[in-house]
Specification:
Elements lengths: L3 E6 L5 H11 L4 E5 L1 H4 L3 H11 L3 H4 L5 H4 L10 H10 L8 E6 L2 E7 L12
Parallel strand pairs: 1-2
Antiparallel strand pairs: 1-3, 3-4
Length: 124
């Protein structure tokens, strides 16, 4: 039997993140909630997300957010490893929420919950 688990990188102050959490909380999945602004983001999760999902880095970063602008970096000139390190040092710059699906403790898919209803795609 396949063990399915979800992890949400959640910002309680974000209405989209709260809505996504509400949508998935009633489902029959083991759910891990990570308040990433307090605890950070796992480097392995970021590496797996970029490797498995082929996320466009430009959609993953909140480029219009002042926190990102203050860093004065051109995201298009950074390697994936450099972007991962930038996120680890500045988790506030990620688009949120991020929902990760695991099967048998292996990351199999991830999605950015914008709009929040997108997270329902991972519940199959």
């Amino acid at each position: 039997m396949t063990k399915k688990k979800l992890k949400i990188y959640h910002n309680p102050r974000c209405s989209k993140s709260r809505k996504a959490l509400e949508l998935i909380s009633s489902q029959n999945f083991k759910l891990q909630i990570v308040k990433y602004l307090q605890s950070g983001i796992l480097k392995k999760d970021l590496e797996d997300i970029f490797k498995i999902t082929k996320f466009d880095i430009n959609n993953f970063i909140r480029k219009k957010d002042q926190s990102f602008k203050d860093l004065k970096v051109d995201i298009n000139e950074l390697s994936t490893d450099q972007v991962i390190n930038l996120i680890l040092e500045n988790p506030v710059i990620i688009e949120r929420p991020i929902l990760i699906k695991y099967e048998n403790d292996v990351l199999v898919d991830a999605i950015i919950g914008r709009p929040p209803e997108l997270v329902l795609k991972l519940l199959d």
